[in-house]
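[User] Once you have settled down, look closely at the record that follows, and write a paragraph about the fold.
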Amino acid sequence: MIGFFIVLLVILSSIFAPLIAPADPNQANRPNRLQPPGTPGHIFGTDQHGRDLFSRVVFGSRISIFVGLVTVIIAGTIGTVVGLFSGYFGKWLDSVIMRLVDVWLSFPFILLALIINAILGMGLRNVVITLIITGWVIFARLVRGEVLALKNLDYIQAAKALGQSELKVIFFHILPNVFTPIIIISSLQISQIIIAEATISFLGFGVQPPTAAWGNMLSDGRNFLFNAWWMATFPGLALAFTALGLNLFGDWLRDTLDPKISK
């Protein structure tokens, strides 16, 4: 429940950011720069350009939630379709796909994302494309394993005996029975995607200033750790609590939805 409420809080803050934020997150105010937390009108203080830090943290949640959801939806769809066909048809198709997945997974996730993003260029769109390219393999391998366990069960053989097409068997009989693990892994993957986006932005390849994103806010704050600690602390806490909430929520989904786990 703690994880659920953290996730709910982040989602609501991203949706209602214009109503919650007391100021324009990109509006500079040089005379007001580096004000500490608790300054009237600036609960989290201000950054090196005099921008309200609380407003920037709130608007930064929009980037994180958008990237996490869009990436997982698209990468999950691609990986699910690939995994379904790989597991169901097997033979040479399964061998080719799984060798590709093995090669993809042999690279560290963040390193591969950074390499692809450096090739594609900077910006939010390219960050999403990068994370989709690196993220689909997790879903493909998971779904493929589930399909291998399901395709020889009696109800699948009965559907084939009744003359149903291969595509109908895959999408109407097998797919509904792999939704539960897909939902569970999706909730856990959103956390990893959000951290990956923040890492890419922190290193300067992702969302570019002055757009508020937790990663580039952390990058700005590292130069002021000793005289303006709040610039890195509050975006870092937002990122940490969001990742924690998503992981707790994902664990709860697994415990609740997985029939293999004894209640």
In short: The domain at 54-257 is CATH 1.10.3720.10 (MetI-like fold).
